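Ticket #4471: complex job returned nothing on first submit. Input attached below:
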Amino acid sequence: MSEEPLEMIEKYLERVRIYLPVDSQDTLTEIRTHLIEEAQSLGQGKITRGSVMLAIERFGDPKEAANAYAGTGKKVGIIPAEYVLPAGRMAMALVALVIAFGIGAYFVWVSLSLWGFPTIENWPFNIPVMIVFWVGLGVLVIGVLSFLDKYKAPTEKTVLEGVLGAGSGVFTPKSRTDAAGDIVFGLVFAVILLLPQIQLCFIPAFLPVVGVMAFLMAVGAAKGYLFFKAGENNANLLFEAVLSAAWIVACMVLVTTGWPIVYVWNNTNGVWSLFYLPDLYGDISFLPLLFNGVWTFIIFIVAVTNSWQLVISGMKIPMYMKAGKGWWWQGTWGSGLHSGWKKWSRRLFGRQSDDSAPKQSS
Amino acid sequence: MSGGSGPATEEFERWSTEVKKGAAALAILAVLEEGPAYGYEIVKRLSDKVTFLQLEQGTVYPLLRRLEKERKLLISEWDYADPTKPKKYYRLEDEGKRALKMMTETWSVLTNEMKELLRRVNAQ
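Support reply: We reran it on our side without changes. The output follows.
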């Protein structure tokens, strides 16, 4: 089987996935098998681009196919039924983002007020206002993009799906390459943070939390190991959820310390020495504010990704429980982000790294 | 079968959709009476044997899912013999067999009576 026609099927399935509920791996596997067999039948035993295209066209529009599976009505409130699931996911992401931003902003406000900056008066009332604003903007964007996507072919991913599908990747199980990455980066950064030479570089206010950060990173490596060995199951998801919650709490503290690096190692003529960073500030007055801004942004991103991870685990655990899976089983792995990674992971870890592998029982 | 437009065509299309919808579940149960089959096999058998239904391929799977998950008439099992194409085999549950029996009886009565009724319509 040539790679290109199969990629067309995968792309079509990615489009269908956007409109399906989270627990739809079985459905996608079933559709995939159907499309392969139909394309083989149409191509008289061979899968060609033409036969795949025809098989996909026969199967129908991804929105309608997914909607028939999901069994939703024709319209839910003002939102067309096919957009309910992706729009719901986006709304959740926005809520998580706004909450994380609200928390971050609150602590930044606390730190800014300590420096004599004007304070934000309307917290926490800006949270519902921002949610309404973003949801309204989302509806407008969906309307405009739907109009632009009017004439796209069934095999072609639409702009709207690109937007709605943003973040839907986290609904697929973690890939083995990502899990391996968690192990390596978790351990490497934990060790780096604990090195006395590195700790010399930090401001005193940051030192008490360095150990906590190193601990969370090491725990992240342990989480990576569990996902690498056993794939996605409820015990691993719970582990991930607890770790995410711990990171969110840590972020609340971390954002108050401000930019933590006060010294950087400098090599002059083969001799290592510590360079005092505030020496730069004398010449460039906005640098302290810029560094603090960068730090707040980093913490904000960490808080958002962990909030989102917490939401996803919170959705997946009851879903697996409902399916009678219990807490521990040998789960599956998702695929990596890039096709290059997919090929390498297949070579390294075999076929199981394919996210289309169905669950063990129906 | 239909031609042109107008209220008669519209009514025919509405009626035809309803009949097909009702018959599709019966046809699937009847196909599975012959033995377990996976999705694509069912689609092929339906398109070969009941051309009247003209089922779109994408509509068979949601119907199978409904008969399995919601109505508990079918049971399914994955077959991984070919890892590139895992197959979900469906078979009738006891309740499915009972439903098929009752539906077949009703369908027979309906078709016999309708045949009788329509013979008079055709004779006019």
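Residues 3-164 of chain A form one domain. Closing as resolved unless it happens again.
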